[in-house]
Each structure stands twice: as C-alpha cells, then as structure tokens.
C-alpha cells in the first residue's frame, strides 16, 4: 500500500500533562477541527473518543493511552493521548518511547504541577522535542506570564512566548500572533472560524515589546541570526520559523501558546505549531541497536527500503477483535510474507533483537 503522505509530512506526537490540565479535551478539539469527528466529545458527559473505557468515562480521567490519527493542512498527525495521574505513569513512559514530539498542556491557573515535572523529565530522558499549551485561560486566576515563569523556573526550560492573550479570565477571546503581529479572535461557540484582525490598540505596545523579546530569544539559538540581530538587520518570519524549528528539535527552546480548549479557543494555532516546529520521522536520528547474533552495532534510518526495525509499545485486548499490538515502525516495512511467516525487529531500550519465526 503506497504512502498517502511523504515521510516529511508525518507528525507522531503525544499530548502529555498533569491530571485535569485538559489533555483529552484538547485532543477532542483536534479531532473535531481536523474533521475526524463531527461533534465535540465531553469528558464530563463521557462522550470522548480517546477515553473509551467504562472506568475512564465514569471517573472523567484518562487511565490508558489512546492512539488516534488526523489530517491537518496536508500533514498526517498521529496522536497519543496519555494519562495524567501518577498511578498510570507507566503508560506515559511507554508512549514517550515512540514519540517524535510532544504537546505539553498546562493549567494556566496552576502553572507547572507535580506530574508536569514528572512527564517533563520523562520527555527529557527520551529526547522528545516539545511545544507547550497554556490551557484554561478563561478560568479565574489564569495567567500566561506566571505559566511562562513557572516553566522557566521549575522545569529549567527556555520557554518562548509565541502569543499574547487578548482579554483575561472570562473576557478571554483571542490571541495576538507575535510572529505575524496579527490578532486571532474566536467569536462562534464552536471556534470553527477564527477571525484575523489588527492588534487591539491597547495591546500594541505590549505586543511590540514581546515580539522583540521573541526575536532575541530565537536569534540566540542560531549563529547567523545572532549576527543579523546584533547588526540591526531585519529577520524574516521564515528565518525565525526555521531557526525555531531547529532549536525545538535540538531541545534548546520550547514555544508556548495559550487558549481554552473547553471554550474552543486557541487549538488551531497549536496544530499549526505541531506542523511548523515539531519533527517528522525524517528529522529524528537513526535508531541505534545491537545485532544479537554477532553483537555488531546497527543503525536504522527511516527509509522504506531499509531493514525492518519496530517497537511494540502497547498490547491490548479488544472484546471484538481480540489482542491488538500497537507498533512504532522506525524503518522498513511490516507485512505478512507470502510464505506465511513473519519477520520482526523489536527494540528494548537501545538494543535491536532480530527474530524470525514461522506462523502456526
């Protein structure tokens, strides 16, 4: 079966966060805006796609990770919605092992919470590039600036504010895109048609100051842009995006966006950011391992014609179809052979163990 998209147009991401930060709610909006679903599921009503277990719907929490796919502007986005409760952190670890990038959701009222630190360290362990989403900007006590400060201080990250919220708490109605210097307003209840307008006059000065800081932070990650910045030359939006993408993939910077998933505001820019800044499988270094037959080191590039390497990261039992295995393929093709046999390559940590067996 031929690829529907080139490898560069795939994004394998996870939604990770502390419990009740809004991971599943954000995932539901992503599925709705990408046309994967035709109604918005609710955690409170037990109608979400990714919280499919009866226990999850009863308790309103995610217990097991769930994988879904969506298409956005010609890109295939494979998403894993992970649990936030510490009791199910093993599910998060298994998911992070196979992800190329992550969206970390924060409660804009609470900022960085204990499980936020846990999943952040787990993402560091597996070198997963991240972008951040300050959710619940419509809540009383929410603060974009305080969330940025907590990311910087408690996580030791380099957060870059990509937006400026328009309105606060119940009056939150949109954001200013600091790169383009345009305002995005969500007026309809479903948030389907965000409107791009001029920046409100009362926010012009603050937006100008924040953009100058954004340009400085991005320029610091690239030597050529640093020279242009010090020489006072203009840096184009394309140059800023390209440099920021490289910095995110290298783990040197973390773009931060804001919105309210429950009120259907701010999700589309996050989808754009997933495409613009998170890596495709082609951007990830080749997977390394050892051939157990001779202990030689092996490297597998993300190519269809390379030998197969894959990791089974989750096995579940479905009442209708039986046992299902979720597999991340790093290279090659996975298919049933004409002789009825199988060839698989399982990754445990950094080791590759090749096995051949005959189907019975």
Task: Walk me through what this model shows.
- Helices cover 27% and strands 28% of the residues.
- With 360 residues, it is α/β, with parallel strands linked by helices.
- The protein is globular and about 65 Å long.
- It starts with 9 loop residues before the first strand and ends with a strand.
User: Quick one: biggest sheet?
Assistant: 7 strands, mixed
Portion in beta strands: 25-35%
Radius of gyration: 21 Å
Spans of 5+ residues with little confidence (pLDDT < 50)? 338-360
What is the share of helical residues? 25-40%
Strand order of the largest sheet: 2-3-1-4-5-11-6
Please state the structural category: alpha/beta
Choose one word for the global shape.
globular
Label this structure with key terms.
single chain; 360 residues; alpha/beta; seven-stranded mixed sheet; four-stranded antiparallel sheet; 9 helices; 17 strands; 28% strand; globular
Topology, please?
Elements: E1 10-17, H1 23-33, H2 54-59, E2 66-72, E3 75-81, H3 89-96, E4 101-107, H4 114-125, E5 130-135, H5 144-155, E6 159-161, E7 163-166, E8 174-177, E9 182-185, E10 195-197, H6 204-219, H7 223-230, H8 237-249, E11 254-258, H9 267-277, E12 287-290, E13 297-300, E14 309-318, E15 322-331, E16 341-348, E17 351-358
Parallel strand pairs: 1-3, 1-4, 4-5, 5-11, 6-11
Antiparallel strand pairs: 2-3, 7-8, 8-9, 9-10, 12-13, 14-15, 16-17
Helix pairs in contact: 6-7
């Amino acid at each position: 079966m031929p690829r529907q998209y080139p490898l560069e147009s795939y994004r394998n991401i996870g939604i990770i966060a502390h419990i009740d930060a809004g991971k599943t709610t954000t995932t539901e909006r992503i599925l709705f805006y990408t046309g994967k679903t035709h109604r918005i599921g609710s955690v409170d009503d037990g109608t979400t796609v990714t919280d499919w277990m009866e226990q999850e719907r009863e308790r309103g929490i995610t217990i097991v990770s769930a994988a879904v796919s969506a298409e956005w502007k010609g890109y295939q986005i494979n998403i894993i919605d992970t649990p936030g409760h510490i009791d199910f952190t093993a599910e998060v670890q298994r998911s992070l092992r196979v992800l190329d990038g992550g969206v970390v959701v924060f409660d804009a009222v609470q900022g960085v919470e204990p499980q936020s630190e846990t999943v952040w360290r787990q993402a560091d362990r597996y070198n997963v590039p991240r972008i951040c989403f300050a959710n619940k900007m419509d809540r009383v006590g929410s603060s974009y600036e305080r969330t940025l400060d907590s990311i910087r201080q408690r996580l030791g990250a380099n957060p870059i504010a990509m937006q400026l919220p328009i309105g606060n708490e119940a009056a939150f109605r949109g954001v200013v895109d600091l790169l383009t210097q345009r305002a995005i307003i969500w007026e309809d209840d479903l948030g389907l048609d965000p409107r791009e307008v001029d920046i409100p006059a009362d926010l012009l000065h603050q937006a100008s100051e924040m953009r100058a800081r954004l340009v400085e932070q991005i320029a610091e990650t690239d030597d050529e842009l640093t020279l242009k910045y010090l020489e006072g030359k203009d840096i184009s939006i394309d140059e800023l995006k390209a440099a920021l993408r490289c910095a995110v993939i290298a783990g040197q910077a973390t773009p931060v966006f804001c919105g309210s998933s429950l009120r259907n505001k701010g999700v589309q820019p996050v989808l754009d950011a997933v495409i613009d800044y998170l890596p495709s499988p082609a951007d990830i270094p080749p997977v390394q391992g050892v051939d157990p037959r001779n202990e030689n080191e092996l490297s597998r590039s993300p190519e269809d014609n390379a030998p197969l390497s894959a990791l089974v990261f989750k096995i579940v039992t479905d009442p209708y179809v039986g046992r299902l295995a979720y597999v991340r393929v790093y290279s090659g093709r996975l298919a049933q052979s004409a002789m009825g046999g199988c060839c698989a390559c399982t990754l445990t940590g950094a080791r590759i163990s090749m096995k051949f067996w005959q189907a019975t």
